[in-house]
Amino acid sequence: MNKLFVVGKLLLTLAVVMVFTVGAAATETIVLWYPGGEITSVALLFHEKDLFSEFEVQNDCRVELVAQDYDFMQQKIFTALASQKAVPDILFIDQSWVPGFLKEDALDQVPEVDAAAWLEAVDPVVKQASDYGEGTMYCYPQYGADIYGLTWNKDYFAEAGLDPEIAPQTWEEFREYCVKTCKKDEAGNIIRVGYAIRHLGQPHGVVHKFLWALWSAGADLVTDPKALRGGKAAFNNEGGRKALQLVYDMLYTDKSTSLDFPDPRTAFLQGLASMQISETISIQTRQPTEAPNLKWGVAMPPVMEKGMTPATNYNPWVYAVPRTAQHKDLTWKAIKWINSKEKDYQFCVKYRMTPRYKENWDREPLVSDPYIVALRAMIPYAHPYPNNLGLNGIMEALGTAIQKVWHKEASVDEALNEAERLANKAIEEAAK
Amino acid sequence: MVNQIKQWIQVARRRHYIHPYLFIAPLVISFTIFRLYPSFQTLRYSFYQVELLKQKTTWIGMENFLALFEDEIFIRSFINTLKYCLYMVPISTVIGLVLAVFLNVKFRMSNFFKAICFSPYITSTVAAAMVWSWLYNPQFGLFNAVLKLLHLHPQSWLASSRQALMSVIIFSIWKIVGYNIIIFIAGLQTIPNVYYEAATIDGAGPFTRFFRITLPLLVPTTTFILIYNTILAFQVFDQVFVLTGGGPAHASTVVVMEIYQQAFLKYRFGYAAAMAVVLFVCILAITIVQYVISERREVVY
Asked: What is the pLDDT of residue B300?
């Protein structure tokens, strides 16, 4: 009898365990990969424990958030896709990676109905960044896109006798302000640059921080930025030469900057640079902890000549779905849910970021936040990256040319000629 | 065939050499799976256009190899690798030999100094390179702080296209010298003392003894060091990746770095495989040449 009772209990326990495990296994799990660490502030929301809990309850599923090392994330994604094992369902990636994945036909298209609704509801620059031609979308840009702006140290401006509230408007003023706010020691070594340059690391990063000059000089990366295929390199011209020459002159004629301060944002936050041009979002999130006493301003980068239209980068992080993901319907549903108008507003208020939906710009506190107001004034002049599938090759070619010129390895003409040849080769290969 | 195998097994059992094969079988199997198979796969891929994401391989013959000769970045990386080898190998060998001769003499705490010299070799290359990247920092680095103290002009080090490769070479020499010292000490200890005694009696000074006895009898050890360091030099990657990433403007890029870029950043596996085959052929050729030359110089007293 006792034995029977024990066996019965064991069987009952086993049955209960099986019910729960089978039940759990039946729940769909979608996996989202995002870059861990502090590489991007817009990934902060993935640290929230209950981020998708409402969606999970509504759809009887689980959303697993997996942090990846940013430096190796592209390779990990590629390896997962190539091996077709452990393919993530959602990729949270830098939009400049998208052409590389599209070239390999690796990304799924956003459902047409959802794409049309999104493009109708969002800000024009967000729409431009989302549209890969004739309303086709492959990804949803995240809120708080990286809009590149000129940030300056107000104390250093005041110290140099400049108005601390007004940024330089033209390249001529920019050079003048750099000379005045640059500081040297007794031996003549620069200990504080007027403008910190990015010239080291992957060529892409160098190009990101140079585009404001290229665009404001009337040049571009490629002739038809919206086309996925075709076109030619558009930087080997008068505008491209002037843009390269600007920083070259600051380095070797004015001597108001130096190659020895290669991380512009860190140099700016540590007080080693009076000005820098890069992601405003990065300064906004890092300044309170890294430089709490820093008084800084943000404005559009300067134009080549008075009266010209300013230009800057708009570089969002995006949600994309691999073509070989297993739970596509649920995945797109989750992406739509996290990118709804209300969620957009909620996260922008919480993290003090720029929204995507037209209506959300006019809601408090966003409409009166000085940082958001400054970016709102800048966003109409922001350009997203070209959609060209050869973008990686174009950026590498131009980035190398920039490094060669600023390191005096080649003249401006030599460097741009070579870069144009390599960029056109990349465009041709990508078009095949 | 089956009968032959059965016969062989019977003979092997009688002569008791089945056991050794069993003992080395795990190593042979793992070597075959993780070394031989990937190597042959790489050779195969070098003749194809490989599109892993599309699960497609297309035969293109020698196209990948021909494209290498027109690729300025690959040519630059090859030249940088040769420069790296030409500086790193002889300098680290000479420093290793000189220090080994000093450390071979018994003195107080000689073992402690040997351990100090060897410790960079056993340190993780990536961790050490990260520390050195801070030492090289133009604003906060120790090297520029020392230069400023000596009233010398601070250098750009890794931030300069003219100094980046040399900065990597300096790190690599620091890293490998300890290993060279240990191997040279082992070689020095195999030289019988009787030769030095005889030479001393004949009136030979310390330099004569070094050049006429020590160096010639160290040829096998020196050969090993040179071949080993040359192979390492051609395969350099970790320190370049961490310190400079191959930049600025490809000034410090090396062949293995370029293989990595082509395969894992541009997904051109066939092209990267062709580079790997070229690298293998170069290392093999140089190793054979070094070995043949050193065989001729070997001395027996």
From this structure: 65
Can you give the residue range of the structural domain that contains A109? 21-145+316-378
Counting one residue from chain A and one from chain B, the pairs whose CB atoms sit within 8 A come to 67
In-domain check, residue A13: no
Interface residues on B facing A, Cβ-Cβ cutoff 8 A: 51-54, 72, 138-139, 151, 153-154, 156, 158-162, 244-245, 247-251, 264-267
- CB proximity under 8 Å: A 96-115 to B: 100, 104-106
Can you say how many angstroms the Cα of residue B72 is from the centroid of all Cα atoms in its chain? 24
- With beta carbons less than 8 A apart as the criterion, state whether A250 and A178 touch: yes
Angle at A66 between CA A60 and CA A70, to 5 degrees: 150
Cα atoms found within 13 Å of the Cα of residue A58, Cβ hemisphere only:
8
Are residue A218 and residue A188 in the same domain, yes or no? yes
Q: Which chain A positions have a beta carbon within 8 Å of B247's beta carbon?
A: 200-203, 403
Q: A384-429 pLDDT, tens per residue?
A: 889 899 998 999 999 999 999 999 999 999 999 999 999 999 999 8
Domain ranges of chain B: 2-45, 64-297
Q: Do A199 and B250 touch (CB under 8 A)?
A: no
Query: Whole-angstrom Cα distance, residue B285 to residue A384?
Result: 50
Structure tokens at A381: 């002049």
CB contact under 8 A, B245 and A105: no
Strands (E), A237-295: 273-279
Of the three residues A334, A358, A378, the one that is the final residue of a domain is A378
- Is A407's CB within 8 Å of B245's CB? no
**Does residue A43 contact residue A77 with C-beta atoms inside 8 Å?**
no
Tokens of B148: 């400023």
**What is the phi/psi pair of residue A252, to 5°?**
-110, -15
A92 within some domain: yes
Chain A residues within 8 A of B147 when measuring between CB atoms: none
A75 domain-assigned: yes
Q: Mutating which of B53, B149, B253 best tests the A interface, going by the most A Cβ atoms within 10 A?
A: B53
Query: Domain total for chain A?
Result: 2
In Å, how far are A105, B157, B166 from B251, measured between CA atoms? 33, 12, 10
Beta-bridged to residue A190, according to DSSP, are: A184
pTM above 0.80, yes or no: yes
8 Å CB contact of A259 and B51? no
For residue A355, is it left (φ>0), alpha (ψ between -120 and 50) or beta?
beta
As a whole number of angstroms, the distance between CA B260 and CA B241 comes to: 10
* Nearest residue in A to B240, CA atom: A201
Could you tell me the two tokens for B170? 């300096």
Among residues A386, A398, A405, the alpha carbon closest in space to that of A423 is found at A398
Predicted confidence (pLDDT) per residue in B32-77, tens digit:
999 999 999 999 999 999 988 888 899 999 999 999 999 989 999 9
Residue A26 pLDDT > 80, yes or no? Answer: no
The tens digit of pLDDT for each residue in B220-236 reads 999 999 999 999 999 99
Q: Which CATH superfamily is domain B64-297 in?
A: MetI-like (1.10.3720.10)
| Residues with Cβ within 8 Å of residue A319, at least 6 apart in sequence | A90, A91, A92, A139, A140, A142, A335, A338, A339
DSSP designation for A360: G
Contact status of A273 with chain B (Cβ, < 8 Å) = no
Pairing of strands A61-68, A296-299: unpaired
Task: Give the whole-angstrom CA distance, residue B46 versus residue B106.
Answer: 53
Read off the amino acid at residue B114.
K
Residues A122 and A174 in one domain: no
A426, part of any domain = yes
Q: Least CB-CB distance to B53: which of A106, A189, A200? A: A106
10 Å Cβ neighbour count for A317? 25
* Residues of chain A contacting residue B156, judged by C-beta atoms under 8 Å apart: 259-260
A250 and A211 share one domain: yes
